[in-house]
From TrEMBL:
CDD domains: LPLAT_AGPAT-like. One of its GO terms (molecular function) is 1-acylglycerol-3-phosphate O-acyltransferase activity. One of its GO terms (biological process) is phosphatidic acid biosynthetic process. The lineage of its organism: Bacteria, Bacillati, Actinomycetota, Actinomycetes, Kitasatosporales. Residues 40-150 form the Phospholipid/glycerol acyltransferase domain. InterPro entries: Plipid/glycerol_acylTrfase. This is 1-acyl-sn-glycerol-3-phosphate acyltransferase.
Length: 219
């Protein structure tokens, strides 16, 4: 199995740093909470298209995000692959993507996931089971990440992006384990893990709102 490029992900992180700080005003809180070594899953809320590049740029470690296959077209597809990002078919059980994601964690890397599955309200209200599966299967801790931007205000040049030079808060939470310690991977165990994850992520989002003074994710 050919693992996604760790060096490429580091290049992507450096590109992300330049772009994000050049176009917006990121304020990063709690990045020190991301474990410095070992496998980690970053669970990121998803309300606008800048979420992935923003977290990729400000995270303290190179991150491999699961990204919808529709983004891998033309030159952009080659670029995303080159910077170590993972293509996933959201309409089916994508075995190649699952293998790649578990490979990243087995290699002690950082996997980035939008557990809501698609861009929406960004409030973690509806989670897919994929996050629980990766966490239970790998044993990797989950670090919740709340990206709180400005995509509902006037001044946007591109739909679903914050206005240029506006502040975007990225708040990293405390790592936690999704499993119950039993190592079970049954459907019931994954459902229970998903409930625990949702409780943790929702709690982190509320805490992030208090820390940043934002009343809503898209404010």
């Amino acid at each position: 199995m050919s693992l996604p490029s760790e060096r490429g992900a580091e290049v992507g992180r450096r590109i992300g740093v330049g772009l994000m700080y050049g176009l917006w005003k990121p304020r990063v809180l709690g990045a020190w909470k991301v474990p410095a070594t070992g496998p980690v899953i970053l669970a990121v809320n998803h309300s606008h298209n800048v979420d992935g590049p923003m977290v990729m740029g400000v995270a303290p470690r190179p991150t491999h995000f699961l990204i919808k296959k529709e983004a891998f077209v033309g030159p952009l597809g080659g670029f995303l692959t080159g910077i170590g990002q993972l293509k996933v078919d959201r309409a089916a059980a994508d075995r190649a993507a699952i293998t790649d994601a578990l490979g990243v964690l087995a290699a002690q890397g950082v996997l980035g996931i939008f557990p809501e599955g698609t861009r929406g309200e960004g409030d973690f209200a509806s989670l897919r089971a994929g996050l629980a599966y990766f966490a239970v299967r790998s044993g990797a801790p989950i670090v919740p990440v709340a990206v709180m931007g400005s995509s509902d205000r006037p001044g946007r040049l591109i739909k679903a992006l914050p206005p240029l030079r506006s502040r975007v808060d990225v708040v990293f939470g405390d790592p936690f384990e999704a499993g119950d310690g039993s190592g079970r991977r049954t459907r019931r165990a994954l459902d229970e893990a998903t409930e625990r994850i949702q409780k943790q992520l929702t709690g982190h989002l509320e805490n992030a709102r208090r820390l940043t003074g934002r009343r809503a994710t898209l404010e």
